[in-house]
Amino acid sequence: MLNEWFVKRRGLAYGIIFGATGISGLVLPFVIQFLLREYGFRTTLRVYSIAMALLSGPALPMLKSRFPYSHASSGRRRMDRRIFRQRKFYNFAVSNLLQGLGYFLPSIYLPSYATSLGLSSSRSALLLALMNLGQVLGQVALGYLSDRTTIYLPLTLSTLISSTAVYTLWGLSSTPNVHAFATLVAFALLYGYFAGGYSVLWARLGMAVSEEEGAAMGLYGVFSFERPLAHLSSPL
Asked: Which of 54, 71, 146, 201 could join 11 in a cystine, given CB atoms 3.0 to 4.6 angstroms apart?
């Protein structure tokens, strides 16, 4: 549906939508921590599910197509399967799958890792919130950049800088005479900014393979499907 409203600024549009979902991550770590401590995981899950229904449900009627349904459906064409013979598609698909294999690991282990270094639980939650802040900013920025330049530039920046942050800042935080909290703050912001912005590029990745609208949307679905598939199959 979003593709019907945005073409030239599609990357920015996806960046804003993805970034908006990350804004909740600025406060959720503290709320979840409080609920788990006071009421346990069962009540916490119930409260979270009810809150999701109450906050998201009223927005569903606002989702409307740009074109009348009859026009949109009659104008659809079957996706050209020849795009699956392109080397570019497989390059993007493999890179997306590999990125998904390790994407969530830092955010999952960051709080427990920080606690193992002697940091308080409140600081651990703060690190997670800062990672979400970086993700919000990165998704908007990389989405905007993808509209202004070749897709390879934000793709390269996202991959290189996020992986460099893992190999340097994460390890340095446990080094003696190094301020662990400050180092993890830098890591959380950098990793959230560049790794979190990767998923915004899916729309432009599809357009880089095929300019045909139906094919680009279909490829977006393929790249989106790869992310949970990578999480489930990750050996890590």
From this structure: 146
pLDDT value for 74:
45
Tokens of 163: 């992986």
CB 156 within 8 A of CB 99: no
What pLDDT, in 10s, does the model give residues 79-97? 667 777 788 888 888 888 8
How far apart are the C-alpha atoms of 149 and 11, rounded to whole Å?
Answer: 11
pLDDT of 77 > 60? The answer is: no
> 4-7 long-range contacts, Cβ below 8 Å, gap at least 24?
4/65, 4/66, 4/67, 4/72, 5/66
Residue found by looking up tokens 């908007």 in the block? 140
Structure tokens at 71: 């026009």
Residue type, 217: M
Asked if the model's pLDDT at residue 172 lies above 50, the reply is: yes
Res. 72: pLDDT tops 50: no
Q: How far apart are CA 151 and CA 149, in angstroms?
A: 6
The verdict on pTM exceeding 0.90 is no
- Between the CA of residue 108 and those of 29, 45, 84, 91, what are the distances in Å? 12, 18, 34, 28
* Cα gap 234→236, rounded to integer Å: 5
Tokens of 202: 């899916």
Listing DSSP states for 194-210 in one string gives HHHTGGGGHHHHHHHH-
Q: What tokens were used for 57?
A: 């449900």
